[in-house]
Amino acid sequence: MRISIDSKAKVKIGNLSRGGKARTLDATKANDHDDHWDAILVPFGILDVLAGQLSIYFGQSAETTDFIVDCLEAWWREHHDNYPQIEGLEINLDGGSAVRSNRTQFIKRMVEFVQMTRLSVHLIYYPPYHSKYNPIERCWAALEQYWNGTILNSIDTAVQWASNMTWNGLKPLVHLIEGTYEKNITVPSDELEAYKQQWLCSEALPKWDIKIVPN
Hints:
By secondary structure, the chain is an alpha/beta fold. It has helices at about 65-80, 105-115, 135-145, 155-165, 190-195; strands at about 1-5, 10-15, 40-50, 55-60, 90-95, 120-125, 175, 200, 210. It is built from 5 helices and 9 strands.
């Protein structure tokens, strides 16, 4: 099964002018400057490329490895009954800082994901400046077009707007993630060795083509 994953630029929540145009008779009132906001949402998406089903997770902390893999685990728990025949995932992603192929916490968490699900995982990275070819980027463009000009003055408003957009004729499954995520977690080299036994890098493209198999 092929999925495409990526995060989107953080969304500031407040009475902020976001550009764009609202289709209303009267001009919508918003603050001229975004030097103050009430909250920030961290969007992360998972797209089932073949079926076209999009899942969006809004974090309220930071875009970290743990946030991303927690979302991936939550997505699999929600959907695995729909894919009883699936034995592996092909994941398209870019080389963002939280999911780099040499980030120790990402190696650890993805190996643990494979052990938990018993799926084989094939990570296929887009090289720098090519992430626009990642299928989920088109979903983010559709969301930006859909809520263009909307004042996202509360978390509920942002979640509701995201829930009502459509991609491939389907509404996305939107989730709000609670909790705080710590940044800059690393795994000691002696502990990492056990995980790297299942982190199988391609000889031709070791940074961009990685397979993880259950032991």
